[in-house]
Amino acid sequence: MHRTNFWDHLILLFGVFIMVGPIFVAFMTSTHEAVDVHMKGLQVTWGDDFVDTYKEVLTTRGGFTGDVTGARMVMNSFILGIGFAVGKIVLSMMAAYGLVYFRSRFSTLFFWMIFTTLLLPLEVRILPSYDVMTKLGLVNTYTGLIVPLLASATGTFFFRQFFKSVPDELLEAARIDGAGPFKFFIDILVPLSKTMMAAIFIIMFVYGWNQYLWPMIMTNEETFYTLVRGIKQILLVWVGSQIPEYNQAFALAVLAMLPPVLIVVIFQSWFIKGLTESDK
Amino acid sequence: MKRVQFNSPLLPYLFVLPQMAIIVIFFYWPSVQAIQSSFYLEDPFGFSASFVGFDNYVDALTSSYYLRVAQFTVIFTVLVTFFSLALGLLLASKADDVIRGSSSYKTLLISVYAIAPPVAGLIGMMFFDQHIGPFVKMAAWFGWDMKVGINYFDTAFAMITVAVWKQIPYNFIFFLSGLQSIPVSVREAAAIDNRSRLGRFWTVTLPLLAPTAFFLLIINMTYSLFDTFGIIDVIVKDKAANNPITLVYKVYMDGFRGNDIGGSAAQSVILMLIVLVLTFFQFRFIERRVHYN
């Protein structure tokens, strides 16, 4: 129907250049020596320092107190990303199941209580949230890092929508076969939701991995730092030193973006499916 | 609601309980507390608090600094929303037209979606770095002596650039899936009626995309208001004094750096109201859309 236009490709290539160029430059620069970067600016070619730089940021203790290594931050990021994604899926599937498949007096109330959480982002209640965490003694814990982020209902609505589209006949048949609520949930609904669960997992993992403000407030012990949370520390240390360790700063940035970017790129069809269906 | 359901007096609560517990403890409790402390003047150590009514709100809304921050927030939001929507739409419509190579374009264009805002901020900082930044050198060709972090306008420019860059993939994904859901028959009919591609775009494609665009408009406004925190924090580096910041950043600065708990809470509540209005529009519109389907 349409002729492929030279200009279309040119605009797209330019778009790709703008979007991916900075990531490429960040990666290339991280493979050079700091002095090199200092003298010659950002790099677009492969340098000799790849192994040295990454070994250094992953294993050398850094930061203000010297307690944390890059490897530790990578681990913390994975704990936050996976913990958040799994928690989100478990909690929201259960809640959605309770809302869709049971008749109860309070389901409307529950629905609205869950619904309201969509209205206010964490950012606007950050100070009192911190207060609550102090009262509960959850500052500098993984629980404190992960669980409060789960207090939003995005996942519940997604699964609710999905469960509602599951044909009623399935439940009827299951009941005739004598399946109870738990059996129906585990043996029929969970397997049916696999694709949805995967899509949600990818989105939530990326979301959890990329959290910044909450970890910044919740953790002041460096051993709990995630990569994203550590970014500003990197920057502060970097600004203060004689010859800024540009290469190390970039290496940490690359480590911080690698897992989420890879996941989104590899699973893009699931990711897009989850994203467009959960929001619309 | 389902026609067939389980009947059990206890089970539904069992399933909903974990979610409800977390929501009550980590959502309702702090939200209520935010509203409550916005009416109190609390000393920084939390020993005493006195009820001051709407004083915190009046203080916030009449302070010239607050108004300047609010003004910047509006400008920032408008520019980030406009540019990331426009560029996202441009790229999506081109990707939709191009058949060959479209999946590679798609993959490359969405990759930036997954980068955390502060990481994007860090990369941006390097590109705008006084010493090694290529953008500073490019600006110098035009006689623009760019000093990000020192000059108000230059810092704002860097923030907006990074925020737009980070948001383009999101808009691209939604616009592209919106475009691809336009039926072939509609496209063919449009192609017969209107030979110019640009004309077809304005008269057929854009109206069909309007629901997506409206949805994205709200999402982008929320993004500019809240999710850019990381970008701003990295670029400003705790030196908010002569740098542009947004309202959310001010809430954070006043609450955690300035220990002005009541003032920060009042500002939070003002932001809550802004989000409520935005969300209201979003749901009104979604409701209408569901109707249409």
Automatic annotation (TrEMBL), chain A:
<keyword id="KW-0812">Transmembrane</keyword>
<keyword id="KW-0997">Cell inner membrane</keyword>
<comment type="subunit">
    <text>The complex is composed of two ATP-binding proteins (UgpC), two transmembrane proteins (UgpA and UgpE) and a solute-binding protein (UgpB).</text>
</comment>
<keyword id="KW-0813">Transport</keyword>
<feature type="transmembrane region" description="Helical">
    <location>
        <begin position="109"/>
        <end position="130"/>
    </location>
</feature>
<feature type="transmembrane region" description="Helical">
    <location>
        <begin position="249"/>
        <end position="272"/>
    </location>
</feature>
<keyword id="KW-1133">Transmembrane helix</keyword>
<comment type="function">
    <text>Part of the ABC transporter complex UgpBAEC involved in sn-glycerol-3-phosphate (G3P) import. Probably responsible for the translocation of the substrate across the membrane.</text>
</comment>
<dbReference type="GO" id="GO:0055085">
    <property type="term" value="P:transmembrane transport"/>
</dbReference>
<keyword id="KW-1003">Cell membrane</keyword>
<feature type="transmembrane region" description="Helical">
    <location>
        <begin position="7"/>
        <end position="29"/>
    </location>
</feature>
<keyword id="KW-0472">Membrane</keyword>
<feature type="transmembrane region" description="Helical">
    <location>
        <begin position="184"/>
        <end position="209"/>
    </location>
</feature>
<dbReference type="Pfam" id="PF00528">
    <property type="entry name" value="BPD_transp_1"/>
</dbReference>
<protein>
    <recommendedName>
        <fullName>sn-glycerol-3-phosphate transport system permease protein UgpE</fullName>
    </recommendedName>
</protein>
<dbReference type="InterPro" id="IPR000515">
    <property type="entry name" value="MetI-like"/>
</dbReference>
<feature type="transmembrane region" description="Helical">
    <location>
        <begin position="142"/>
        <end position="163"/>
    </location>
</feature>
<dbReference type="GO" id="GO:0005886">
    <property type="term" value="C:plasma membrane"/>
</dbReference>
<feature type="transmembrane region" description="Helical">
    <location>
        <begin position="78"/>
        <end position="102"/>
    </location>
</feature>
<feature type="domain" description="ABC transmembrane type-1">
    <location>
        <begin position="74"/>
        <end position="267"/>
    </location>
</feature>
<comment type="similarity">
    <text>Belongs to the binding-protein-dependent transport system permease family.</text>
</comment>
<dbReference type="InterPro" id="IPR035906">
    <property type="entry name" value="MetI-like_sf"/>
</dbReference>
UniProtKB/TrEMBL annotation, chain B:
<dbReference type="InterPro" id="IPR035906">
    <property type="entry name" value="MetI-like_sf"/>
</dbReference>
<keyword id="KW-1003">Cell membrane</keyword>
<feature type="transmembrane region" description="Helical">
    <location>
        <begin position="261"/>
        <end position="281"/>
    </location>
</feature>
<keyword id="KW-0813">Transport</keyword>
<keyword id="KW-1133">Transmembrane helix</keyword>
<feature type="transmembrane region" description="Helical">
    <location>
        <begin position="12"/>
        <end position="29"/>
    </location>
</feature>
<dbReference type="InterPro" id="IPR050809">
    <property type="entry name" value="UgpAE/MalFG_permease"/>
</dbReference>
<keyword id="KW-0472">Membrane</keyword>
<feature type="domain" description="ABC transmembrane type-1">
    <location>
        <begin position="70"/>
        <end position="282"/>
    </location>
</feature>
<dbReference type="Pfam" id="PF00528">
    <property type="entry name" value="BPD_transp_1"/>
</dbReference>
<feature type="transmembrane region" description="Helical">
    <location>
        <begin position="104"/>
        <end position="128"/>
    </location>
</feature>
<keyword id="KW-0997">Cell inner membrane</keyword>
<dbReference type="GO" id="GO:0005886">
    <property type="term" value="C:plasma membrane"/>
</dbReference>
<keyword id="KW-0812">Transmembrane</keyword>
<dbReference type="GO" id="GO:0055085">
    <property type="term" value="P:transmembrane transport"/>
</dbReference>
<comment type="function">
    <text>Part of the ABC transporter complex UgpBAEC involved in sn-glycerol-3-phosphate (G3P) import. Probably responsible for the translocation of the substrate across the membrane.</text>
</comment>
<comment type="subunit">
    <text>The complex is composed of two ATP-binding proteins (UgpC), two transmembrane proteins (UgpA and UgpE) and a solute-binding protein (UgpB).</text>
</comment>
<dbReference type="InterPro" id="IPR000515">
    <property type="entry name" value="MetI-like"/>
</dbReference>
<feature type="transmembrane region" description="Helical">
    <location>
        <begin position="69"/>
        <end position="92"/>
    </location>
</feature>
<comment type="similarity">
    <text>Belongs to the binding-protein-dependent transport system permease family.</text>
</comment>
<feature type="transmembrane region" description="Helical">
    <location>
        <begin position="201"/>
        <end position="219"/>
    </location>
</feature>
<protein>
    <recommendedName>
        <fullName>sn-glycerol-3-phosphate transport system permease protein UgpA</fullName>
    </recommendedName>
</protein>
